[in-house]
Write a structure and sequence with these properties.
- The complex is a heterotrimer of chains A (about 425), B (about 300) and C (about 375).
- Chain B has eleven helices and six strands.
- The N terminus and C terminus of chain C are likely disordered.
- Classes of the chains: A alpha/beta (about 425), B mainly alpha (about 300), C mainly alpha (about 375).
- Chain A: This is Leucine-binding protein domain-containing protein.
Chain lengths: ~425, ~300, ~375
């Protein structure tokens, strides 16, 4: 019957004109009420009793911008879970110098035009002590242009392309990177492919963005230096549905080895496409660190056997074992969740080192001076000095054997390969 | 040459998958006037269930498929009753936005139910690793199945719409609601059945896409859906065979461009760049529509399903 | 009429229902206003928007009282809503009034922001010059898009313009990638605009101006022609409305306004990204008018409020949310909650939220983008 009801004539439909007036005050009221709710519900750790914002007698409030609603939620949402897991463990064990950690997360929807607003919410409304993690390189860069001038410590911008130096290569104050960058990794992969695997010609499948291109450059450099050659490279984008043409292009160049750069799902689909068409390079594949994860090996199934993977975390370490213990009930291992966990540990160590009444300055001093050859507890060491704020740069290699990542090398320092 | 053949085949298969999706998009658009942007989420929900049935209780493959298809029918019915029905009389754009909202809800529910699917997982099928080999040319079992099932479904649907009472009733509803009502066709029931049928089609397309990619996650249908819509519009949005052809065209264009442009550059610009390929495909689509405003295969004022 | 019939069976009933109105299309706009302004709505029509404006002008002081030191930040969020309202208005003029179901507006949104970033940050041109160039470019683009769009209609137009948005987005991404940028930050913005209050008052003034102009535009010959187009293209043509000219004009006006929203948005976020020209963004514009009310000025405001504010508020919920014995990972659920709210809004207010405000006992039926 609904269909037969005549639609109201146009006149009624556009009575909006009269509505505007009634509307605005109503809207304002609504806005005020809701904003007020918002600010009281998460205001929490205001720093009234202490000298530093976000630090009270029993709480340290820190904040992160992690997309849990938008296009990169696949990456950032599990990272958030890892963060929360570690912070909860620390809180259960009594916190940091008697203070519990309160971690506030805001989603910027993966959209860097919204990042500034998200960081402002954390700093101006929620009064956080420091920023821990902003997910996405571009997003992190936007966050930095807010935090750096204001002297707000920002630890772990997530994304291999995040800035931690200024135009002159000088370390940005107030930003500390933990993640290795793709450029360093490209050098180490090139070195390993040419010297240990003895690949004379190498093909590259890379994600077509600034990071992928950066790795393409450094990989080619290192291959050249160590007597090998990059013979073909094909870019893909994350939403690509068909890898047949990419495969045929790389196959035509007959490389000994194909390096896979970027994200787990597209690279796995490339390998599956190749397997379905009966192709595998002579030495197989070498994937970069986002694929250093047993769940990727599982995704590949039989086609994954023998594939090399670069990585910077080792599971035979106390922190990794502690993580595996804590996540026994998870259906699958998530490399992203693990990432959150190990970085939350670095954050907590930094807060511990910042003293019993931490200020932003004392945290900065701790980060700049107390992290020299710091043992991360998950494999590589990390060094931060006032001049160097970059992340770890040690890589090791694994090979997939019976569906498991099995270490086949020790850690190789990027600076040793490409001084 | 072999490489080109292989890429053409792949384009044909990818295109068939777009076409299969476009079938459902056209069917539901023609009968209920809904531009169904939730179509990908419907497909993903049923496919994710299939994955869970295969990996959780480890049901036999065909039983799991059967159960998931049944679920798809149910899902279609629930969606129609709960949300499409109340919005039946709403303007077309309202309905389109509602399907987007529905997609958000479906995706969130699937993700909350099965968090393991937020990361990419291997989608196991018995077809994996089997291929027909002719010299250096490979036709994988999955690809063969995709072509076969798309062709079969197209024929079956055509026959169904042309020959069966129900199909004729559906076409009548699509052609004119009032007239159909006057002829005593239970229009409400027809809408319900159309939603169930398209949800079923979505599920089949989802299964095949998952089988072909071998990797899925909650959002695996997102990038495919837009291309399927483009296929549907190229096909004219009113004929089933047009939809499939439109989809195939998109798939072929995508693959052939990728192969031809690889390794070439224009000054400093790398033409093999996927961004350029994407831009070319969409530019081509917009241009084609300008030349043929009602799609390549769309009839001017003729009405067909 | 034949073309209309193919598009959707549901439309046909409505077309015929509309026919008596369409027969005198040029007068309906005027009649509508007289009708609503007639007896008891005389004073609210003039005074109420004014009151609302005054309230918005006083808002910063109120926020000082309410929020203390986070007042600036809260104000910054209201600024966002106002910017979105401009974009919603742009979509509404094109879709809700001139009945072009175009999903292409995000293309202008992104292009204007990138032009601003390029001219202002890279080429060091004055901000206002950059804005002006961006708006002119949008007008030109609107003309280029609008021209061909005349021959494409209905769902075809919607998907074609959606394709245009994806095309623009991939070109912008290409630009980013080849320039080696992760984010296109606006580094040379005028210092004054860094002040939240200045930005707020600037945006408020522009929004008020744009809505004021739109209000009068819709009552002019142009607006009446658009409405006539919407009610029945055939009838409008028969009555001597120059379809081509008015449709083109709708595209251009909409493009310029979206461009204005784009430069303001980039200024607000101090960044331009390719995601400003994405399917999601363009859908957000459409959502604003559908949920707010197609063919209604107040609907544009309400829609902007819904689409802009609801996700922000949901994002304020603490994660995990503890509800009795339940621990909800709310951060990953907010998208779904937003979807549910949106669905409910559409089901219960099919004519848009603005229909709440039109009284008279009749349930309002929105008739937004008629293909």
């Amino acid at each position: 019957m609904r269909l037969q009801r005549p639609p109201a004539p146009v006149e009624q439909r556009r009575r909006g004109g009269s509505g505007v007036g009634l509307l605005l005050p109503g809207v304002l009221l609504f806005l005020l009420l809701l904003s007020a709710c918002g600010s009281t519900s998460s205001g929490g750790g205001g720093g009234s009793s202490s000298s530093a914002p976000g630090v009270s007698a029993d709480t340290i409030t820190i904040g992160g911008v992690l997309d849990t609603t938008g296009p990169i939620k696949v990456i950032c949402a599990p990272i958030l879970q890892g963060d929360q897991l570690y912070f909860n463990q620390v809180n259960a064990a009594g916190g940091i110098n008697g203070r519990k950690i309160k971690f506030i997360q805001v989603s910027d929807n993966g959209d860097s035009t919204r990042t500034r607003d998200a960081v402002r919410q954390l700093v101006e409304q929620d009064h956080v002590f420091a920023i821990f993690q902003v997910c996405g390189s571009g997003n992190a860069n936007v966050a930095e242009s807010y935090t750096v001038p204001r002297g707000i410590p920002f630890i772990d911008p997530i994304g291999g392309g995040s800035k931690y130096t200024d135009q002159n290569g000088k370390a940005l104050p107030w930003v500390w990177m933990t993640q290795p960058n793709y450029g360093d990794e490209g050098h180490v992969i090139g070195y390993y492919a040419a010297t240990t695997l003895k690949a004379h010609s190498v093909g590259l499948l890379y994600e077509d963005d600034v990071l992928g291109l950066q790795q393409k450059t450094t990989l080619a450099e290192a291959l050249q230096k160590y007597g090998s050659r990059l013979v073909a490279s094909v870019g893909y984008n994350a939403t690509q549905t068909d890898f047949s043409a990419a495969l045929q292009t790389l196959k035509a160049a007959a490389p000994d080895l194909i390096v896979l750069n970027g994200l787990p799902s597209p690279t796995a689909r490339f390998v599956a496409t190749a397997a379905a068409q009966g192709y595998r390079p002579r030495l197989g594949y070498l994937a970069n660190y986002p694929m250093a994860d047993n769940s990727w090996a599982k995704v590949l199934g039989a086609a994954g056997e023998g594939i090399y993977v670069s990585g910077y975390t080792s599971m035979d370490t106390p922190v990794a074992q502690q993580y595996l213990q804590a996540t026994r009930s998870d259906p699958v291992f998530s490399a992203y969740k693990f990432y959150g966990y190990i970085n939350a540990k670095i954050m907590v160590d930094a807060l511990r080192k910042a003293g019993s009444s931490p200020t932003r300055a004392s945290l900065r001093d701790a980060l700049d001076h107390d992290f020299v050859n710091y043992d991360t507890g998950f494999g590589p060491t990390l060094t931060w000095t006032p001049e160097r704020h970059g992340g770890v740069s040690d890589f090791m290699f694994f090979q997939i054997k019976q569906g498991q990542l099995t270490p086949v090398s020790s850690f190789i320092k990027a600076s040793a390969v490409w001084p | 040459m072999l490489a080109l053949l292989q890429v053409l085949l792949s384009g044909l298969v990818t295109g068939s998958l777009y076409g299969l999706l476009a079938l459902g998009i056209v069917l539901i658009y023609r009968t209920t006037g809904v531009l169904n942007f939730a179509y990908g989420a419907l497909a993903a929900a049923s496919t994710c269930l299939l994955y869970i049935l295969l990996t959780g209780p480890r049901l036999p493959f065909w039983l799991a498929v059967l159960l998931s298809l049944f679920f798809a029918l149910l899902l279609g019915a629930v969606v129609e009753r709960a949300f499409a029905r109340p919005l039946l009389a709403a303007p077309i754009l309202t309905k389109a936005i509602a399907t987007l909202a529905l997609a958000l809800v479906l995706q969130t529910v699937v993700q909350a139910l099965w968090p393991q699917l937020t990361t990419p997982v291997h989608f196991p099928t018995p077809f994996e690793g089997h291929a027909l080999r002719l010299g250096g040319f490979y036709l994988s079992l999955t690809d063969g199945l995709v072509l076969l099932i798309t062709a079969l479904l197209l024929i079956v649907l055509q026959l169904f719409l042309l020959r069966t009472r129900l199909g004729i009733a559906m076409r009548a509803t699509a052609d004119g609601l009032e007239a159909a009502r006057l002829m005593g066709i239970p229009v409400g029931l027809i809408f319900l059945l159309v939603w169930m049928l398209t949800s079923l089609l979505a599920a089949i397309a989802g299964f095949l896409i998952a089988a072909r990619q071998t990797v899925i996650d909650v959002q695996f249908m997102d990038p495919v859906l837009l291309l399927a819509f483009i296929g549907a519009v190229l096909g004219g949005l009113d004929r089933l065979e047009g939809a499939v052809l439109g989809g195939v065209l998109v798939g072929l264009a995508e693959n052939v461009l990728a192969l031809l442009l690889a390794g070439h550059s224009l000054g400093a610009l790398d033409l093999g760049n996927p961004g350029i390929r994407e831009a070319l495909i969409f530019a081509g689509f917009v241009l084609l529509l300008l030349l043929r405003p009602r799609g390549l295969f769309g009839g001017a004022a003729l009405r067909r399903v | 009429m034949a073309m209309k019939r193919i598009v959707s069976p549901l439309k046909r009933g409505q077309v015929s229902q509309d026919a008596p109105i369409g027969a005198t299309p040029l007068t309906t706009g005027g009649r509508a206003e007289r009708a609503s302004g007639g007896e008891r709505h005389v004073w609210p029509r003039v005074t109420a928007p004014l009151l609302g404006l005054i309230a918005l002008i006083l808002l910063p002081s109120l926020f000082d009282l309410l929020f203390g030191d986070s007042a600036d930040f809260q104000l910054h969020r209201v600024t966002l809503i106002l910017i979105l309202a401009i974009a919603a208005l742009a979509q509404n003029l094109l879709t809700g009034y001139a009945a072009q179901p175009s999903l292409g507006n995000a293309a202008f949104f992104g292009v204007s922001a990138y032009l601003l970033a390029w001219l202002n940050s890279d080429l060091q041109q004055p901000y206002w010059l950059a804005v002006l160039v961006a708006l002119l470019a949008c007008a030109l683009l609107g003309l280029i898009v609008g021209g061909p769009a005349l021959s494409v209609s209905g769902a075809h137009l919607a998907i074609a313009t959606l394709g245009l948005v994806v095309l623009t987005g991939s070109l912008l991404t290409l630009w980013d990638t080849s320039a080696g940028r992760q984010s296109y930050e606006l580094t040379a913005l005028p210092e004054a605009l860094g002040d939240d209050r200045v930005l707020y008052y600037l945006v408020l003034a522009l929004t008020a101006l744009v809505f004021f102009c739109a209000f009068h535009l819709l009552r002019s010959r142009i607006g009446r022609a658009w409405i006539a187009l919407r009610d029945s293209e055939v009838a409008a043509a028969a009555c001597g409305v120059a379809l081509t000219r008015y449709k083109l004009l709708a595209f251009v006006v909409s493009a310029v306004l979206t461009g204005l929203a784009g430069v303001l948005y980039a200024t607000w976020g101090t960044t331009a990204t390719a995601s400003m020209s994405s399917v999601d963004q363009t859908i957000a514009f459409l959502t604003m008018i559908v949920v707010g009310g197609a063919g209604s000025l107040s609907g544009s405001l309400l829609g902007a409020l819904f689409v802009g504010l609801v996700p922000l508020l949901l994002g304020e919920l603490p994660d995990p949310l503890t509800l009795g014995p339940l621990q909800l990972p709310i951060a990953t659920l907010t998208t779904g909650i937003y979807g549910v709210l949106l669905l409910l809004a559409l089901i219960f207010f099919p004519g848009g939220l603005s229909s709440v405000f039109s009284r008279g006992g009749r349930l309002v039926q929105g008739e937004g983008g008629k293909p």
